[in-house]
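Please, structure for the following, as tokens.
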Amino acid sequence: MAELVIVLAIMGILAVTVIPMYHKLQMRTMKNRNNANMQIIQEAFVNYYYYTYAVGTPHYPPPPDSLMEDDWANSPMDSTLSLQTPNELFGTGSVPKNSNNIPFKYSNWIETTIDGRQHRKILIKDVDEHSPSYGDSLVFTI
């Protein structure tokens, strides 16, 4: 009986130390996945920009009103040039989302420097408050 109590005590100690470590590892993995998804989105949009630049009509996919939700991702980016949708820029056929399956926020803009040069910027941000990468963002400048 004493051996059983000792084994149960050891298992309890292991459980108390391992479970929090597992949770931290899980959160760190989800955060890394979210950041990788943001980078994939950013790279796909930049590649799209370079492609449209090469054919003479440089532009990013138009930003949605808020998040990159399915309605936006299935709508043509520029119906005057092509019926291509944001989803078609990805090998999976859909714009990546965060680990909670919530879309990221996307915006782009043009900044003009004092000497008149224009810098095109793209921002991808996780705005899901329940996400381990909440508030993380990527900004790219061309």
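The first strand starts at residue 105 and ends at 112. Helices lie at 2-54, 70-73.
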